Amino acid sequence: MNATTRLHELPLPGLREDNPRDFLAALGLMRLVDLMWPSRQSRLVWMGAEHVPVLCCNERMPDHWPDELLGILKELIQAPINPLVHGEIIKTEYQVFRDAVKRAVAFSTSGHRLAKLPLILYSSYSSQIESDDGVIEPSGFSFGNGQSGKKLLLDVGQLIAGLTPEALVETLLSKLSPVAAKSLRWNPVEFRPAAYRNHDPGSKQKGDETKDHPALNVLAFFGLTFYPTVPTASGGRTAGLHRFMREDYFLWPIWSTPLSVGEIASLVCAEHGQWVPSRGTATVWRSKRFSSDKSLYFAPAELFR
Known about the structure:
Blueprint: E1 9-11, H1 20-36, E2 43-47, E3 52-56, H2 65-77, H3 94-107, H4 117-125, E4 126-130, E5 136-138, H5 152-162, H6 165-172, E6 179-180, E7 211-212, H7 214-223, E8 229-232, E9 235-238, E10 241-244, E11 247-255, H8 261-268, E12 281-292, E13 295-298, E14 302-303
Antiparallel strand pairs: 1-3, 2-3, 4-5, 6-7, 8-9, 10-11, 11-12, 12-13, 12-14
Helix pairs in contact: 1-7, 3-4
């Protein structure tokens, strides 16, 4: 991925601007690279007419950066006391979540290369508001219960464990076909109503498995670090999710100037009225967040502006 016309640019043609999961994946890669190699002063930009995301660094990335990155992530996810997660699902008892946040705070001073990552994730997992039934309110990107296929934290851990450096690179370069794997349901193609199938979707017919890119789902998970969940008078609200005509949408901007992690965090959480061409925003996309068959999905994106 380093063999580009500009030495310190890493084009990511495997990520689409009009896919909410891909956008989150671009942010997730940016977050991990910034934490792993801070001296590279990484920036992210969407280049060309097709708005291909490009990771820009002031120094060449290490030749084996995918191996290093996955090695560190697997080390964390397989630790006896995993600092990234507190169980299989985000929604849990308030005290359990609070104890996990304390562990993340302690881990942030450990000197580990990703020491800050758990703490940033916990600001995204939940607003830490305790609901009437004694559990925290999860991020709007999460699935609030433990039904099959909705165990977000468990699924992410298993995806990380099975990921290889080769698959990561080939996925980012758009050289790998999707495979049957755990689903986070952040890719709009995952919504397939029973009316569009020739069999009962509950029968798990062979060949009907959800096919996607595990690497992009893993990166999208870490993209959540840009969208904190905060308490409001009406309960927990997650940045990036907006309400129009009583329906929820995920809105995201595509920018034409290389931005740092801090600049991206400010941009994506700003009021969408500020996403204008004069401030470097090329386009704005939105995807409806809707419920069907007791599950949450994203609809295919549409240009918002």
